[in-house]
Amino acid sequence: MSHAPDHPAHLAHHYETPRQQFEAGKLGMWLFLVTEVLLFGGLFCWYAVYRANQPEVFLAGHRYLDKSLGGLNTIVLIVSSVTMALAVRAAQLGNRRALLGFLAATFLFACCFLGVKYVEYSHKIRDGLLPGRHFQPAAEKTGAGRVPVAPADAPPDAPPAPAPADPAPAGAPAPPPGAADAPRLVPSAAGPEGLAPPPTREVAAEAGRKSVHLFFGIYFVMTGLHGLHVIAGMIVIAWLFFRARRGAFSPSYWLPVDLGGLYWHLVDVIWIFLFPLLYLIH
Amino acid sequence: MENHAAAEPHVHVVPLRLLLGVGALLIVLTGVTVGVTYVDLGRLNVVVALAIAVVKATFVALYFMHLRWDRPLNAVVFLTALGCVVLFVLLAILDTGQYHTDRIPDHAPAVHR
């Protein structure tokens, strides 16, 4: 059990060599990232099924989100990934000051991300844009057009509106160019009295607005779980910072910085997919 | 432990310019994915958005996460998980395509083509 003369302090006693410890640590981290990928994979599957079933709900829902705030957060996370990669590089080179600086920068960018998220969430909570039965858009309270559509005349609990008298006249003219970003809708079912009319773009848009609470269920679960991962990553970065300040890392031992970095980059990768899927629906 | 070189972990320091270049590319691609939203490509819009996201994620994995220089086993482990997720989502969408439930009263289902 006695340490060999060249058995450094950072080498756990159950490893033969630093290299073995390094590679075991890396593989272990990648296996953990696999479980994260599968966790979010289930949520992406949920998203895919709902969106395939009700594209109009997602089209209606994304209009409530602020593309510029989402884009800003994407850039903040990418920059934080760069600073994290630079932190790993500084640790490899044994530059402790740069390591501390880049870890602090990564932490601050993570704070920025959560700050923007706070602004977004508080707008949604104030506007009643919450999942399920908590969805109570209060357009009249929001003023200044925070809510881009005005669902005040159709509260979510109201009975379905009667079918329009003339939903889809045969040989209807092409829809106006203004509705170009509505989903392309085709008839696909025969009713008892022949082919049921396909919903017009207006009918589909109205149906999407009525069910938009489904979108917010997905939005809050996916971005919320991602936000929890950001917080977990910040805890890891803070821990790395304090260890680095005590001088725990050196050019021959920087594995924890590398593993924390891997986790942080995965959080970035997940947001890279969430951003277009939630904010940029066409 | 006689072979000291083999005992030390393999260290690859990523060049500074490469890291900054990848970061800049990721920000440019973010701009592209926002811009392409304003172009009507029909059902291809979501495909393009996902393709750009895959390219961005690949760059993050290869350069920020060191997969390009890592032991191949780590990449194999990661890609296996990603493959499982892709299969999972694709099979679920295939199945969903078989059911066109009537969701808008008095209208045929709104099928996204």
Description of the structure:
- The complex is a heterodimer of chains A (282) and B (113).
- Helix content of chain A is 62%, strand content 2%.
- Chain A is mostly helical.
- Chain A has one domain: Cytochrome c oxidase, subunit III, four-helix bundle (Four Helix Bundle (Hemerythrin (Met), subunit A)), CATH 1.20.120.
- In chain A, strands 2-3 form a two-stranded antiparallel sheet.
- In chain A, a hairpin with a 2-residue loop joins strand 2 (190-191) and strand 3.
- In chain A, helix 2 (55-62) packs across helix 6, helix 3 (67-93) runs antiparallel to helix 4 and helix 4 (96-126) runs antiparallel to helix 7 (212-245).
- Chain B is mainly alpha-helical.
- Chain B folds into two domains: 1-70; 71-113, no CATH class.
- Chain B has helices at 4-7, 16-35, 44-64, 72-96, and one strand at residues 111-112.
- Classes of the chains: A mainly alpha (282), B mainly alpha (113).
- The interface between A and B is large, with 83 and 70 residues.
- Strand 1 of chain A pairs antiparallel with strand 1 of chain B.
